[in-house]
C-alpha cells in the first residue's frame, strides 16, 4: 500500500507539496490548519477526505502513514512532536524552528522516536543549483570561490515571516536554504559575520542586511538581502560566483541562449573566462518539490533514516542564521 500523507498546515508552501503528491499519485488523507477556509479550499481542490481538529489528530489518524508539517516555523515543534508521538515518518518545512531551544527539542524527540525524518531543504533537489555545485567542484572557475547573492523586496505575503519571534526575517527564513547548500559543499563554516538592520516599521525582525560566511577551504558566501521594502518595490538581483579562473552567472549576462536548446526542458548557466571567453552549461530541468516529496515518500517506505536532509542538518543551518542575527556564536 502506498504511503498516505497527513498535512499539518495547508497554506502557501503546502500547495507545492500537494501538487507534487497529486501528480505522483501519493495519497493525502487528512489535514489540520487553524484556518478552516484554507482547509475547505484544499479539500475542494485536492479531494483530501479527512479534516481533523489538531496536529496530533493528523499524526494519529489511522489512514495517515507519514506526517508533513507546513506550519510557520514558530509552531513547527508542535507538528514534529505529534509525528514523534505517533512514531510516524516526518517531513517538516524549513527552517527547523524559530529558536534553538525548539530545535534542540526537535532533534531530541526525533532521535528518541527513531523515526524517518526529513527537512525541506529543497535546493538539494534543484537542478540549477546541482549544476552550479557540479561546476564548482569540477574547478571550472577555479578555487576558492566567492558566491555573491543580493536582492531585496517586501518579502513573502504572510506577516509571520517578518516578525522577530515568528519567522525571524530573510536571513533565517529565506537564506537558510543557502546555508544548508554551503554545508553540503564545504562543511561547517569557520566564521560567520552578520550586519543587520530593520528598515520597514511594520516589521519586528531584522529585515535587511549583509552576511559573510567563510569556510576552511577559503570559499565564502556573501549575501545581501532585504524583506524591508514597501509593497511593489524590488531591488535588482545579483547572483554570481567568482573564482580565480572566471565567473559563473546564474542569469546569462549576454541574454544569448544557445541555439537549438529546448528551453522548456533545459536551463543553462554561463561561465566567462580569460579574454571574455564564454562557456554555456546546460542542465535538464525538473520540479524540485516533486523530486523532494517522491524521495521522502521512498525513504518512509524503506524506513531509511539517512534522508537527504536530516533534522540535524536543519539545526546546523539554523545556527548559521542565528549567528548572523546575533543570537548564536560558533
Ligand atoms: N521550502 C520552501 O521553498 C518554502 C517556501 C515557502 C515557505 N516555506 C516554509 O513553510 C512554512 C510555511 O510557510 P507558508 O509560506 O506556507 O506560510 P503560509 O502562511 O502561507 O501558510 C501557513 C499555514 O499554516 C497555518 N497555521 C498557522 N499556525 C498553525 C498551527 N498552529 N496549526 C496548524 N496550522 C497552522 C496557517 O493558517 C496557514 O494556512 C514556513 O516554515 C516557511 O518558512 C518553505
Assembly level? single chain
| Share of residues in helices | 25-40%
Taking all Cα atoms into account, the compactness measure Rg is 20 Å
Secondary structure tally: strands = 14
How many domains is the backbone divided into?
2
What is the ordering of alpha helices and beta strands?
Answer: EHEHEHEHEHEHEHHEEEEEEEHH
- Give the structural class: alpha/beta
What is the global morphology?
A: globular
Strand arrangement in the largest pleated sheet: 8-9-10-7-11-12-13-14
CATH topology of the largest domain: Dihydrodipicolinate Reductase, domain 2
Q: Which ligands occur here? A: nicotinamide-adenine-dinucleotide
Low-pLDDT stretches: none
Summarize the structure.
By secondary structure, the chain is of the alpha/beta class. It contains ten helices and 14 strands.
Characteristic key phrases:
2 domains, globular, Rossmann fold, alpha/beta, 6-stranded parallel beta sheet
Describe the structure.
This protein is an alpha/beta fold. The chain has two domains: 111 residues, NAD(P)-binding Rossmann-like Domain (Rossmann fold); 160 residues, 2-Layer Sandwich (Dihydrodipicolinate Reductase, domain 2), CATH 3.30.360. It has an eight-stranded mixed beta sheet. Strands 3-2-1-4-5-6 form a six-stranded parallel beta sheet, with helices on both faces. Helix 4 links the parallel strand 4 and strand 5. The longest helix is centred in the last third of the chain and has 15 residues. The site of nicotinamide-adenine-dinucleotide (NAD) has 26 residues, from helix 1.
In terms of topology, how is this protein built?
Blueprint (H helix, E strand, L loop, with lengths): L4 E4 L3 H12 L4 E5 L3 H11 L3 E2 L3 H6 L5 E4 L6 H11 L3 E3 L7 H14 L3 E3 L7 H11 L8 E7 L17 H4 L2 H11 L4 E7 L10 E7 L5 E7 L11 E6 L2 E4 L16 E8 L3 E8 L3 H15 L8 H14 L6
Parallel strand pairs: 1-2, 1-4, 2-3, 4-5, 5-6, 7-10
Antiparallel strand pairs: 7-11, 8-9, 9-10, 11-12, 12-13, 13-14
Nicotinamide-adenine-dinucleotide (NAD) binds next to α1.
Amino acid at each position: 500500500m502506498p504511503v498516505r500523507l497527513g498535512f499539518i498546515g495547508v497554506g502557501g508552501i503546502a500547495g507545492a507539496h500537494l501538487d507534487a503528491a497529486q501528480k505522483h499519485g501519493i495519497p493525502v488523507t487528512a489535514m489540520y490548519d487553524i484556518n478552516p477556509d484554507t482547509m475547505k479550499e484544499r479539500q475542494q481542490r485536492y479531494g483530501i477526505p479527512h479534516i481533523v481538529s489538531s496536529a496530533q489528530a493528523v499524526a494519529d489518524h489511522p489512514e495517515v502513514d507519514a506526517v508533513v508539517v507546513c506550519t510557520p516555523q514558530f509552531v513547527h515543534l508542535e507538528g514534529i512532536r505529534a509525528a514523534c508521538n505517533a512514531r510516524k515518518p516526518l517531513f517538516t518545512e524549513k527552517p527547523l524552528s524559530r529558536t534553538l531551544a525548539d530545535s534542540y527539542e526537535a532533534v531530541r524527540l526525533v532521535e528518541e522516536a527513531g523515526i524517518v525524518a526529513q527537512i525541506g531543504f529543497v535546493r538539494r533537489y534543484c537542478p540549477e543549483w546541482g549544476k552550479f555545485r557540479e561546476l564548482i567542484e569540477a574547478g571550472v572557475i577555479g578555487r576558492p570561490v566567492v558566491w555573491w547573492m543580493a536582492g531585496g523586496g517586501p518579502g513573502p505575503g504572510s506577516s509571520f515571516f517578518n516578525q522577530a519571534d515568528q519567522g525571524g526575517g530573510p536571513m533565517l527564513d529565506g537564506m537558510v536554504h543557502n546555508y544548508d547548500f554551503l554545508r553540503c559543499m564545504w562543511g561547517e563554516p569557520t566564521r560567520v559575520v552578520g550586519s543587520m538592520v530593520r528598515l520597514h516599521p511594520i516589521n519586528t525582525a531584522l529585515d535587511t542586511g549583509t552576511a559573510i560566511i567563510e569556510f576552511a577551504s577559503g570559499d565564502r558566501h556573501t549575501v545581501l538581502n532585504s524583506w524591508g521594502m514597501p509593497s511593489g518595490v524590488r531591488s535588482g538581483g545579483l547572483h554570481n560566483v567568482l573564482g580565480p579562473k572566471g565567473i559563473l552567472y546564474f542569469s546569462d549576462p549576454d541574454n544569448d541562449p544557445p541555439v537549438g536548446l529546448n528551453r522548456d526542458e533545459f536551463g543553462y548557466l554561463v561561465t566567462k573566462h580569460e579574454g571574455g571567453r564564454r562557456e554555456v552549461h546546460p542542465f535538464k530541468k525538473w520540479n524540485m518539490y516533486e523530486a523532494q516529496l517522491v524521495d521522502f515518500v521512498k525513504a518512509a517506505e524503506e524506513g531509511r533514516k539517512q534522508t537527504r536532509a536530516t533534522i540535524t542538518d536543519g539545526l546546523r543551518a539554523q545556527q548559521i542564521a542565528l549567528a548572523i542575527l546575533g543570537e548564536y556564536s560558533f
